[in-house]
């Protein structure tokens, strides 16, 4: 049920018996109606998140938190209080520190006489510890397209980590025939974005997935607006976009388990970051929205994405254009880990080249993804090749399809070596394009080993010092919140042999 319906019902009864209902509300309105979450695990710390719900909250509310070794909370590892402030949407970002490395914990909150559900989280292993990692990638959870059966399945897996790779919300108003309607019109103001996150977070499957494991999240475009590029919205330059972007950025920080130090100033929120998982892996998270150049060759009078012939758009390969911005590109080049076996790159979209027509004739490309910034991709993969990284794996989302791919520095050279492996996970719930269109393009893209746009789901992984195993998880009936979820295909990557193999 949506939060605005709840609010409307409460307001309606207030008009009948104000005094009685006001007293009843303070005790009965659920304060943890948006669930709880944890995230950004380090070897000695983790972030615990909640946001209080209810329209009658005081400006400041004291919120207690506890972290325990056991589910019954008999062995408390850390506890504290935070102030949930109205100016930050009554969100809470608690940061227990000095924790034991590489172990599971339980956590919960208390506020206004109520206790939250209990969540499970985990610290990263010590930097010098042998480790394995069970994790999932997920993206694109458009609420009005389908239900979240995939999240129930994630929650049941007891993973070490969930990586959410963008499109946590969608900014649109819903069409009248939608499966479940977005509350309100297109999100523009801070209140709009807060209400949209609150509606998404009212979903019990999403809440269960957050409560099951720590998450690391990056955004894509829809957390702000479809196809925006840095300061430019999809419709072209627009003076009001700066305030919309700042509002959306604040709401994003308020609703994610981000550290307090990440609290945004205006629309600046530093998301690109590194996370080490024992001796096993370094995870690099990238932000391909905030610093990118505007898309190449837009439709007349607009900005945003387009699909264009290479012959008609030299900007596609202009070496001056970047998807990450010069500073982030340099940060990534300098940060490849040559000690740990695996470098995982968590970013937004498909990195492998995808041409809609024969590349021998130049090819046809979508300008919003890496194909619109081919030189930027080439610089990134050249860095991987030069360092001879034995286990570089790129993880993505955005395109609402499961893609498994070989990554090469030069796709025009049939003999060019594979330098890295790619898993681009399909959407949790957002609809994809017709499979027939993808099938028709497959002959032009022989480096794709799996390509299904007609499946909703996510990808789960098991990583150890020798091998990465991937399961492409697929929701049987996306319209059913209790649908079965099955493994449609399995792939493996052997350390030292870039390129996913069927397993
Ligand atoms: Fe999406
Ligand atoms: Ca997107």
Report on this model:
- The protein has 503 residues and is an alpha+beta fold.
- It has one domain: Alkaline phosphatase D (PhoD) (Purple Acid Phosphatase, chain A, domain 2, 4-Layer Sandwich), CATH 3.60.21.
- It is built from 9 helices and 24 strands.
- The strands form 5 sheets. A 7-stranded mixed beta sheet has the order 11-10-9-21-22-23-24, covered by helices on one side. Strands 12-13-15-17-19-18-20 form a 7-stranded mixed beta sheet, with helices on one face. Strands 3, 4, 6, 7 and 8 form a 5-stranded antiparallel beta sheet that branches.
- β12 and β13 form a beta hairpin.
- α1 (3-16) packs antiparallel against α2, α3 packs parallel to α5 (204-212) and α4 (190-201) runs parallel beside α6.
- The longest helix has 15 residues, at 241-255.
- The radius of gyration is 23 Å and the shape is globular.
- The two termini are 41 Å apart.
- The model is unreliable at 1-24 (pLDDT under 50).
- Bound molecules: fe (iii) ion and calcium ion.
User: Could you say what the CATH architecture is?
Assistant: 4-Layer Sandwich
Strand content: 25-35%
Distance between the termini: 41 Å
Shape: globular
Number of extended strands: 24
Mean pLDDT across residues: 94
Q: What hetero molecules are in the model? A: fe (iii) ion, calcium ion
| CATH homology superfamily name | Alkaline phosphatase D (PhoD)
Count, helices: 9
> Which fold name corresponds to the CATH topology?
Purple Acid Phosphatase, chain A, domain 2
Largest sheet: 7 strands, mixed
- Helix content bin: 10-25%
Strand order of the largest sheet: 11-10-9-21-22-23-24
Q: How many discrete structural domains?
A: 1
Rg, please?
A: 23 Å
Give unreliable regions as ranges: 1-24
